[in-house]
């Protein structure tokens, strides 16, 4: 009697572009290792840019071997895109409550001008908390400044998920306060001006610290900056 043939087991195929996760016996603590590489990538890419950065330097900074970087990201370009995605993910999580409140308010019954201004304060405060009051974004800013100067395909994700959203929400509130169209160039310029004055304290952080004689932007100092910028936003829209 001939032995019955068994069907071969089909091995799962990797989906192109899907982040790889280690199987049993592979790289330990896969998510932790992947995040270490992204954090190192943000530092190195922010300092050197995409072209000058080396995968070897990033792997050394992350404390992993070079094959781990290729295993998770497929190479330098894949890691670079993952770094942009990480910035977008973190920014979206910080801004989500303000975005929900603004969307609900503008879609519902008419709200007063005072309520609209409070929503604008809430939005600018949320941006200030992550971009000015936290030390986390320092590598993000260097990364994003390089993308502003020399955009790569990663700029599209950063623009659509971060910059466009922040400016768009700010413009929508300004347009509602001023009874204008949010696509009006004047409204959009006003929105960029309000967001830009806030970002000064991150992009030109050393200038701000030296001018103010501070060692860091935190505590009462951060609250003072947020209060002054809130008042400037009110003044900018008060008599129009």
Please outline what is shown here.
The protein is an all-alpha fold and 240 residues long.
Question: How would you characterize this protein structure?
Answer:
The protein has 240 residues and is an all-alpha fold. The protein has 10 helices and no strands. It has helices at residues 30-52, 55-62, 66-73, 76-107, 113-131, 138-149, 154-178, 185-203, 205-212, 219-238. The radius of gyration is 23 Å and the shape is globular. Mean pLDDT is 86; it is low at 1-28.
Shape: globular
CATH architecture classification name of the largest domain: Orthogonal Bundle
| Spans of at least 5 consecutive residues with low confidence | 1-28
What is the CATH third-level topology name of the largest domain? Answer: Tetracycline Repressor, domain 2
- Distance between the first and last residues' Cα: 95 Å
Write the layout of secondary structure elements.
Blueprint: H1 30-52, H2 55-62, H3 66-73, H4 76-107, H5 113-131, H6 138-149, H7 154-178, H8 185-203, H9 205-212, H10 219-238
């Amino acid at each position: 009697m001939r032995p019955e043939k068994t069907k071969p087991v089909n091995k799962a195929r990797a989906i192109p572009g899907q982040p790889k996760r280690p199987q049993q016996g592979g790289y330990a603590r896969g998510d932790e290792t992947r995040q270490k590489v992204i954090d190192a990538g943000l530092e190195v890419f922010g300092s050197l840019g995409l072209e000058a950065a080396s995968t070897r330097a990033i792997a050394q900074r992350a404390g992993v071997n070079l094959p781990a970087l290729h295993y998770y990201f497929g190479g330098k370009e894949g890691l670079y895109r993952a770094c942009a995605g990480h910035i977008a993910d973190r920014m979206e999580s910080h801004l989500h409550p303000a975005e929900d409140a603004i969307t609900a308010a503008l879609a519902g019954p008419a709200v007063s001008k005072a309520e609209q201004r409070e929503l604008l304060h809430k939005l600018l405060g949320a941006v200030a908390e992550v971009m000015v009051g936290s030390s986390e974004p320092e590598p993000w800013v260097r990364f994003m400044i390089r993308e502003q100067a020399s955009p790569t395909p990663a700029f599209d994700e950063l623009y659509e998920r971060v910059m466009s959203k922040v400016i768009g929400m700010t413009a929508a509130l300004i347009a509602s306060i001023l009874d204008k169209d949010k696509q009006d160039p004047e409204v959009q310029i006003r929105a960029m001006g309000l967001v830009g004055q806030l970002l000064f304290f991150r992009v030109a952080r050393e200038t701000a610290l030296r001018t103010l004689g501070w060692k860091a932007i935190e505590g009462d100092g951060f609250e003072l900056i947020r209060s002054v910028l809130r008042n400037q936003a009110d003044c900018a829209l008060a008599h129009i």
